Amino acid sequence: MIIEVGDEILNDLKILKGNFIFTKEKDFFEIHEKSFLIIKNKRVLGIYKNLPKKYEPIKVKDYKDAIIIPSFVDLHVHAPQYLQQGVGLDLELIDWLNKYTFENEMKFVNENYAKKIYSAFVKDLYDNGTLRSCIFGTIHNNSNQILIEEIKKRKISAFVGKVNMDQNAPENLLQTTDDSLKETIEFIDNNSKEDLIKPIITPRFAPSCSLDLLKKLGDLSVKKKIPVQTHLSENKDEVKWVKSLFPSNKNYSDVYLKNQLYGMEKTIMAHAIYLEEEEIKMAKNKNVYLVHCPDANINLSSGIMPVTKYLDMGIQVGLGSDVGAGHMISMTNTIKSAIQSSKIRHIFNNNERILTESEAFYLATKLNGSFFGKTGSFEKGYLFDAIVIDSNQNVIKELSPLEKLERFIYCGDKNDIIARYLEGEEV
Amino acid sequence: MIIEVGDEILNDLKILKGNFIFTKEKDFFEIHEKSFLIIKNKRVLGIYKNLPKKYEPIKVKDYKDAIIIPSFVDLHVHAPQYLQQGVGLDLELIDWLNKYTFENEMKFVNENYAKKIYSAFVKDLYDNGTLRSCIFGTIHNNSNQILIEEIKKRKISAFVGKVNMDQNAPENLLQTTDDSLKETIEFIDNNSKEDLIKPIITPRFAPSCSLDLLKKLGDLSVKKKIPVQTHLSENKDEVKWVKSLFPSNKNYSDVYLKNQLYGMEKTIMAHAIYLEEEEIKMAKNKNVYLVHCPDANINLSSGIMPVTKYLDMGIQVGLGSDVGAGHMISMTNTIKSAIQSSKIRHIFNNNERILTESEAFYLATKLNGSFFGKTGSFEKGYLFDAIVIDSNQNVIKELSPLEKLERFIYCGDKNDIIARYLEGEEV
Fold first, then answer.
1. Do A44 and A123 have their domain in common?
2. Going by fewer Cβ within 10 Å, which terminus of chain A is more open, N or C?
3. Rounded (5°) CA angle B304-B307-B313
4. Is B343 at the interface with chain A, CB within 8 A?
């Protein structure tokens, strides 16, 4: 039977009740206590304090005192580094890559190993309420495909990149320029028909790629309209190294720009700590995402992105867990660390303002979400991607919905998440 | 039946098997893989790779692949601030005290409220493997006694302080100098017979106490041989305030020193960020514990203790979660944050060295433990205080015992702790 009211077919609708919190604007939280949210065709139709009479025939899923927030989006994370969390963090970037990371990534030639690590990695994303993410795989397409299958099983969403390297890494992590390109094309072609999972072009970082490879990847991105993710200006020694490897480019960003890997399609540049003023302006003009990975940057003693400076210039600043240099996959931890990192910059330079809690939350939900389309907010027309949070600690009942969210961000954990929704469906 | 071998009565012994890790020295981990640890009369008798033949009649508790480490000690934590974790962290110290903390502490005049918060707080200490701690209560002795009963129930160990304030706080958090002193004496006398729980004299910080109160508390400490805990030099504005309140003292430390609250008995000075050189030397000479609370200091934008500088001078540097300005009770989080904080100082000043992982672990176990006696290590003669860690994640099996510990510190949680021992008994 089809229930119809006016021109609306009510069978298509879902209604949740609870305390909804989200950030339409970065400067404040929108809080809808004990309200009704209506989902129609995957998207938010509206939030009502009192349920309109015409919707009364529809069953309401009542989450009572729980808070319901947009699920998290992670714009920078390395799936193969999942077991590296917390290990080897006494080193800085280049040594950490050579001593731990490359050694580790070689193991992904073995599909059994990949299956073990990737299933744990994807489960952890899911458990922590990160339902969309931009993920680095390795150079190995068989293993990358296993990663994609694991993501599919959990019914979550991701951009996944086959990593490209044809120089400056151990021999068995390198491919010829042609093989690297050919396998990237295969990876894209094999994975272009999924709704929730998409390929993304992923040169590891400038030093790992010859100019020829960078140019061909840029051409491919433009020709097939595929977005790009890579690293930029994470560590001072890395910046010097890039200057010596690419002497004809004005700066690090220019290496990507000149090869059509910067802002032609949607582009993620992870880290972006030591940018020259010209590069900062370019990030704004080209509308790339500069992705702040606060824990990874401290763990490898790299530095701290001037996040409020970038934000106040109107740059799209995203957030990333950057596991494994980042030690936790949880985006609540990343939100907390982004706030702490801005406080540290403020301690050392009073002129830099602190990132507020609502801003950091906005970055991890609505701004990060914009890379995937209309998600990360509960405004009308947004895909309903959400997590429901209800600590089983009795003492939490003393808190207001916003305080519950603050506590969840600072000291909650995955066990507090009692339900997950992607595009209107519980997953 | 008594089993006897030579002059040893074996019934008194317990034997555990597993992977034991601890820090006898701060510069490296001692790792005893698949070994046997023998406990006699609460204390470690020895660790053996192969169990000596005479002990074979004793049943061995085999923890298999789990790692076994000293349980954690927290040298600075505020029980009444338990529900404040994550809330109000946009403010700096003095405003945070006035706007959130004092308002919150007033509620502890209500014993029902105290019971609810303190039972959750103590459970969280226990759950996180912090089996000994130095705790601030409030001014309210009835509630402080409830805190002590909760600690007793969990069979863990603590120094607990009745907070003293007779100035510079809202009226209903102040007591007269005489009442404050009288109730401190009562609190000490009521709680001096416990084995695991001891009173500690706790002037909140210099600004909250008149010179008269400080002097009387110092006299009391010396007369009854009671240790002291308080705050020192956490925030620049606080340091200026103390100078204006106590103009005849040379510096902040001197306010405590001149009143016999500094190094006469065992003494904890939390924070100690902005010390003058003379104060740093005094900390060493007087053998006080300067307690580093890295998260609290960043959350309130206070600053960062120069922890490796102090350590290299031979100062006793302890670690504290400082809940609620610190947002997590877990000492693994505090270990991680202490390392990160030292990396931040290193980023801003290359001359300052980074705190190593073994050093940070040593602080949270053996050094913090020294405040309680011989605990925090598995050397012969140490009280066997321990936690057993075994993640239920299948993927962890790939890791060595040390890597398991590193992962536990950086991204494990209380659910990974499968057993807790205090003074040789499972609790």
1. no
2. N
3. 140
4. yes
